Structure formats: structure tokens, C-alpha cells
Amino acid sequence: MAVGDRDPRGGKAARAAGEAAGSRLAPLAPGDLTAPIVVPNTLWQATNPLAYDGGRPTEITHLREFGQTEAGRRDDLRWGALQIVPTKADYILDLIRANSLWPLLSGLACCAFEMMSGATSKFDMDRWGMFPFRASPRQSDVLIVAGTLTTKMSGPLLRLWEQMPEPKWCVALGDCTVSGGRYKRSYSTVQGIDRIMPVDVYIPGCPPRPEGLIYGMLQLGQLVKDRRGHWDEREIGPTVPDKI
Amino acid sequence: MPTRQRATQPDGATQPDGATQPAHAARTSQAARASQAATAKAQRQRPPEQYRSDDDPRIMLDREVGADLFEPIPPYPVRTEREAEFYTRGDGEMFLNVGPHHPATHGVLRLVLKLSGEQVVDVDPVLGYLHRGVEKICENSDYYHVIDQVDPLEYVSSLFQEWAAVLAFEQLMDVEVPPRAEYIRVLTSELLRVSSHTLFMGFLALDLGGLAPILYSFIERDEIVEMLAALTGARMLFNYFRIGGVNGDLNHEFLSRLGDWMSRAAKQTEANTGLLNENEIFVRRARGVGILDREMALRFGVTGGNLRASGVPFDVRRAHPYSVYPQLDFNVPTRLEGDSLARYLIRMDEVRESIRIIDQCLHNMPDGPVMAKLPRLLRPRPGRAWGAVEGPRGMLGVYAISDGSDQPFRFRIHDPSFLNLAVVPYLLPGNLLADTMAIVSSLDPVLGGIDK
Hints:
The structure holds two protein chains of two kinds. By secondary structure, chain A is an alpha/beta fold. Chain A has helices spanning 12-21, 51-54, 63-68, 76-79, 85-98, 111-119, 151-163, 175-178, 210-226, and strands at residues 103-104, 142-146, 169-173, 201-203. Chain A has a domain at 81-233: Rossmann fold (3-Layer(aba) Sandwich), CATH 3.40.50. Chain A is 33% helix and 6% strand. A four-stranded parallel sheet of chain A has the order 1-2-3-4. In chain A, helix 7 links the parallel strand 2 and strand 3. The longest helix of chain B has 29 residues, at 179-207. The relative contact order of chain B is 0.14. The interface between A and B is large, with 46 and 50 residues.
């Protein structure tokens, strides 16, 4: 089921019933708004088949399926045969990571300005070690999804998330990324980014103040400390259950 | 015609036994993978070429192997002749994809550049990464709710969209706005214009490699949005204008913050512009780059500072006066150069004019109510109305059609950024790759408005 296949207004029968009743909005069939949005990763493919450890199996088109396979749990990229090491080492390393969270500079919409405002003169997130907004996903720890995520942008954003090296965390900034917010009934937005990727911290607000972002990042630091040594047990796919 | 050859061709070509296998078979086969690794390693260890010549057959071979790196993938099967022409790579040309995630594209703009060496040959902007269906949502909302829904379009200057929508609705409903409300609208909007233009200065400098101006820009912006938050309760999406007035009178905290800011605004503007006006690197990178001539600007419907930088003194506040602008004294700064530097200088001049307007508003502010007397349920007569304001990026208009119900039948948003961005395919070719961002950024696009 591709992105465009999803009918946001219910099936034909539902639409006919709505027109007969004379309402302006066709009634929704149950589960229409909450159908999983499947984003096949077909826009970018590795030219070199050896890249990305041979690529992942092509039949997996959704992070949720990827999370159910064992492929996502493998850590031999970093540690090879010594996979026993990270559990103990991460117990210490996560204490360091928690105090130096490097976000990815990825602004999507309005909230990006509040994120930049939090990073510049007045609020200065650098005081908590969150400053170096990296432009490359390969150099960053935290993906702050700032702004409305549309279905067209969800493929590139998922690609960014996959390009970030583990351990990585995701912060949903703003109502649009938490639940859809004011675009809950729009035909072109993703109603909450936890439908396509795991989310660690939700920051509501439209847009949240920069203090909200800083508080959320501090909470994320605490979360990293709480989960230390266990980052490979986290969700890889979306955190929203399938049938919600 | 470009096809998706990159997935199959290299795999088949590098099979050692000559058998051509499909890509997915090669990917899963361990033996094929190992042999490919050996081939790739042998290619890497080839001695470097001593010279480069187009006649050398080895070089041509090398180019064809490496060409897969630069083969573009069209976002969809090509549909028009223009796309087919664009995605056909000529001799010595390569493609570079900029965006949608790129720190210098002001949001989620995607530019596919066709390069010949360092020079841009052609460009294909891909839009729609922030299309949120605002127009459709507005058509399913009450007239009250539309004002909130248009806020996130140009999110750095939200009040202007509210103003355009409110202007159109007031024409539909024959509402007379009290003069104090008009002055408050002018005052808050001009504050936001200062904020938007100051941010423009910071981002333009950031795209050209200077980090310091954006820190000063955000000081100004935070001052302004904090005082507007004291007035409206929100920092970005204000939802402040109402049909027939504004939501709430000026309060003490707003006025005291505004007084503090006004006492140093003019001086601070000079200091901020001094960061860039006298910076030799900035001036030499912005001057003479991306020259937009008068005819092209008029043909493409460019408005705002971009048009005034090309020598056309068009300003909606002066050409089609609305609100209390006829009673205010301000200039329309115009320049003749039409390059990136002129577009920057025009906006800095507009900041000075805006500060003058704010000063006049504070001195001429009449007393009285801030809302007209209105019925609780708004049902305009059937008809159509066009309301346009001069936003920070140009003429921002709203075309509303009413069918007599409490929701607009059609709600069309005319966004200036979209038309300003339309000249990019004509400005970029011939320029260097490094100047791309100097040009796109000087047009000051905001993707929320472009994609709606």
C-alpha cells in the first residue's frame, strides 16, 4: 500500500452516504485516519550494492516491519564479533552522551524558527551542550522534527533518520508532529510522526516556546541516563501500535 | 530518455563470468558480492591519471562508470518536454540535488541543479514538501477560524496573512473597522515586518558564510515576538486580527516593551546593517549576482522588495491604499541594480521606514473601540472579494468567494513568495554554484507560503 493509495475520505460507499445526508464532509470509515502510512523507500537507492552492508532486504518497506526482524538489532557495524562489549561500555558512554546531545539541523516549518530561536542569543541551548546543530545526519545524535510533516516530506525525513548512526533519539517538536495538531484533518499531512518513526520526547505547543524545547531536551538527557546500556532494546519502528 | 538504469547496469556489467544477473540477485548472492568487492578494490587501486583529456578513451570509460553517481532520478516518470530536456544529461554535465533537507534552502525547498563544472546550466525547483492543504481547510472552517488557519503560511510574518483574509471578509460583510483598530493593525504588522526583514538579513549572511548576523537578528526578533506575545498571547501564530477589529486593546506590558525597543531600534538597525554593509566579503559576493531585470520581474509577477530592487516603485500600501496608510508618511525605497545586494539594501531601508511608521502610529493613535459591533453569527452576502496587503515579501492577497453560508465557498491565497521563486530557473543559469544560495536567499522565500 503506497502513500497515494490511502483514501482519506472513506470508501465510495461512505462518500455516497455523506452526499445523501447533505453534509459537507463525508463521514469517515473507522480506521481511515489512523491507517498506517507506508513510505516505501524507493526514491534513494544505493548505487553501490555493497553500501549500507549490502542494503536491507527489498521486501521490507516500512520501519515497523524492519523493527520486527533481527536485522535492525545487529550491531556488528560498530563492534563486529565483539558484540558483547557495547552493553557494558554503553553503560558508561551514555552518561557522556546525555550531556552532549548534538541535534540535526532539520527545520520543516514554523517550529524551526522557535528551534533556531532556542539555539541563538537569547535562549542559547549551548549552555546545556545541545548546540552544534549539524547539517549532516551522520554527525548528529538527536533528530528534532520541527514542523508539519507532510506525506511528501516523510520519505526524505525517514531517510534522514535512517542515516543517523546509533545511538540516536527523536524529539517531536510541536503539535503537528505530536498528533497532527491543526492539520489533523488535512489530506496531505502525517498525523503524528510516531506513525513513521520512533519518538522519545513529545513537546506539544503550536509552536512551543524555546524554553519548552530546552526542557524537552533536558528530559531527553534524563531519559538517556535512565535507559543507559539498553539503547539497542528500543523501538526501531513506529511507536504507535498498529490498530489505533 | 532517462531511465532507472543505475540499479541494474553496474551490477550486470561487473559480473566476472559475464552472466548478467538482475540487481536483487546480485545483492543477495555472497559470491557475487565478494567478486564485486574485488572489482571495486581493483578499480580503486588503479594508478591515478596523469592528464585529463576528452579524447582519451580511458577517460571516457572512466566517466561512464562514474556517471552513475550523477545520473538523476526524476521524482516521477517525466511528463513534459521540459522535464525530458532537463533530465537528459549533456556532455560534461552533472546533476546536483540540493534539498529538501538542506541548511540553506530556507525550509524544505528542493532544487535539482544541472551543473557544468562549477557553473549552473539549468535548475528544476521541486515544491510541495510543505503542502498542508490550508486552502481546503479554510473552506471547511468558519470565517472566524480562517484567521487562525492562515497563520502558519508565512510563519515569520503571520499577521499579514490574517490581515489579507480579514480585508477580504470585511469587504464581503460591509464591516467598518474603528480607526484605533486600524492603527493597531498597522503598528503590529510593521513590527513584524521589521522582525521578518531582520531575520532575512541574518539568513542571507548565514548562507554566505557569516554566523554573527543571525545572532543579532534573533535578538531583535525575540524582542519583537515577546512584546507581541504580551499583546496576543502567542509568539508566532498570533490569531490577533478579527473581522471588524483586533482582539484586545494595547496593554501596558506591550507598550512598555515597545517603548524600550523603540528607544534603541533605529540605532540597533544601523549597527546590524553595519555588520554587512561594510563587510567586503559579503558585498563582493552579493553585488552583481542574480540580476533580475525590470521586464522579467514584471513578467513573472514579482512583487515586494524584489521588484523595488529592480527599479519598479510598486508598493501596495501606496498603489492600492488600504487601512490608514494614506494618512501616514513613509517612503517607498527603490533601487535600480536588481542584484542580490540591492535586494538586501532595499529591505534594510524598509526597516527604517517601518520604524518611522511605528513612531507615527504611536503618536497619532486615536482613542475608541477596537472592535466593530457585529452579530455573533457571520453570514456574508453571496459574492466575491479580494483583499491584498503589502507583506514583507510582496503583495499578499486573498480571494474569497462567499455562497451565503458561514464558510467561504472558495478561499484562494495569493502568496508573493511563490511568484518570487518562479524567477529562480531564470536567475541561476550562468552563475556559479556557490552563488546559488546568495540568489535564492536574497529572494527571501518562505516555504510555508509557497507550498500552502
